[in-house]
Amino acid sequence: MLRKPLNETSNTPVRRCILTGDRAPPEALIRLAINPEGMVAPDVRAKAPGRGAWIGVDADAICEAIKNGKLRGALARAYKGASFSFADDLSDKILSELKYAVLNRFGLESRGGYVLTGSEKISAAARSGQIYALYHSNDASEDGRKKLDQAWRVGSDKEGSGMQGTIIPADRNAISAALGKENAVHIGINDKKAAQRLEHHLRRWINFTGCSITPDNHGLEYDVDASPANQEIRD
């Protein structure tokens, strides 16, 4: 399901997925651009010049669209006759760029002082209502996740809601390297804007990997209407 950030308004520009026709804000989709070599490449920051094509499907759907020719046809229409080519491993390239964007964002927020690691520190902050987002590595123990999830619900006054932290599609080694810390298994974000910045990148990565774990992150996201009214569609 496509997601959009908080504070979305009816006048926010939207993009259309070239494969499904679904519409969503650009933050919920992935832009594909033609690089100087004429290859289609992921533009996860949506900064590359020229006409772009937007996708809102997962990795399996991209692989299938490459095999059956639907992606080539959709790109040809989106690029309006421009010459291009793409590699069979385009899905892997997208995954790599999404992962880099998320881990780089974690590093930036850590340097800004908005990241807590260590179960005891996170638990204390969570119970005090000072955690705006909670994340777990994909190799974190179930018991460890549940204890911190519970502390977060208590501090957020959401006991009984089932709210839980998001499992990141990366292990503790990758997360630790991004943060410059040792054994970063759990991450607490103590600033709301930092949590929203992370959510922007992380949700696209999780959606693209096809992960089924998409918990409510303390109100940082909500579903996209497939047919939003009064929204401008752009390339």
Which key phrases capture this entry?
235 residues; alpha+beta; Hypothetical Cytosolic Protein, Chain: A; four-stranded mixed sheet; 39% helix; 14% strand; elongated; disordered N terminus
Quick structural overview:
It is built from seven helices and eleven strands. It is of the alpha+beta class. It folds into two domains: 3-88, YlxR-like (Hypothetical Cytosolic Protein, Chain: A), CATH 3.30.1230.10; 101-222, 60s Ribosomal Protein L30, Chain: A (2-Layer Sandwich), CATH 3.30.1330.
Q: Would you kindly provide a written description of the structure presented here, covering whatever features stand out?
A:
The protein is α+β, with helices and mostly antiparallel strands. It folds into two domains: 3-88, YlxR-like (Hypothetical Cytosolic Protein, Chain: A), CATH 3.30.1230.10; 101-222, Ribosomal protein L30/S12 (60s Ribosomal Protein L30, Chain: A). Helix content is 39%, strand content 14%. It has seven helices and eleven strands. The chain starts with a strand and ends in a 12-residue tail after the last strand.
CATH architecture of the largest domain, by name, is 2-Layer Sandwich
> Count of helices?
7
Strand content: 5-15%
What are the segments in which pLDDT stays under 50 over at least 5 consecutive residues?
1-9, 212-235
Give, in order, the helices and strands. Answer: EEEEEEHHHEHEHEHEHE
Rough outline: elongated
Largest sheet descriptor: 4 strands, mixed
CATH homologous superfamily title of the largest domain: Ribosomal protein L30/S12
What's the domain count? 2
In the sheet with the most strands, the strands line up as 7-10-8-9
Q: Which fold name fills CATH's third level, the topology of the largest domain?
A: 60s Ribosomal Protein L30, Chain: A
Q: What is the CATH class of the largest domain?
A: Alpha Beta
Mean pLDDT: 86
Radius of gyration: 19 Å
Count of strand segments: 11
Helix content: 25-40%
- Structural class comes to alpha+beta
Terminal CA distance: 21 Å
